[in-house]
Amino acid sequence: MRAPAADLRLLVVDDEEQILELLDLTLGLQGFRVVTARSGPDALAAAREATFDVIVMDVLMAPWDGFETVRRLQAELRAAMPPVVFLSGLNRPDHVPGLVTEYLVKPFRPSQLVESIRRVAAARN
């Protein structure tokens, strides 16, 4: 049984303001509770203040890329680390951090992102 979208709290991380706004709007319209962050350090600060069911993370960011951000989040959150859906304009690399259970290559359809979020959230339960 799937959790309703309204029961899922997402941390969405992207350093491009327009993409972040689009993801916030799109996922919010799907009923997800969305918190946004514009960088790895901002994501770490948000994760210290609240718990999340899924993290949606861009790969190419500064000052930390998505992989470094996940490493730092995992070091801090340990067992409380939620699954991660990576978004990237690049093909999936050979090695990604262990908690990355989905990797979507841009461009993707909003429905693909929603399904990935639901899939990783369901697999965690």
Automatic annotation (TrEMBL):
<feature type="modified residue" description="4-aspartylphosphate">
    <location>
        <position position="58"/>
    </location>
</feature>
<dbReference type="Pfam" id="PF00072">
    <property type="entry name" value="Response_reg"/>
</dbReference>
<dbReference type="InterPro" id="IPR050595">
    <property type="entry name" value="Bact_response_regulator"/>
</dbReference>
<dbReference type="GO" id="GO:0000160">
    <property type="term" value="P:phosphorelay signal transduction system"/>
</dbReference>
<protein>
    <submittedName>
        <fullName>Response regulator receiver protein</fullName>
    </submittedName>
</protein>
<dbReference type="InterPro" id="IPR011006">
    <property type="entry name" value="CheY-like_superfamily"/>
</dbReference>
<feature type="domain" description="Response regulatory">
    <location>
        <begin position="9"/>
        <end position="121"/>
    </location>
</feature>
<keyword id="KW-0597">Phosphoprotein</keyword>
<dbReference type="InterPro" id="IPR001789">
    <property type="entry name" value="Sig_transdc_resp-reg_receiver"/>
</dbReference>
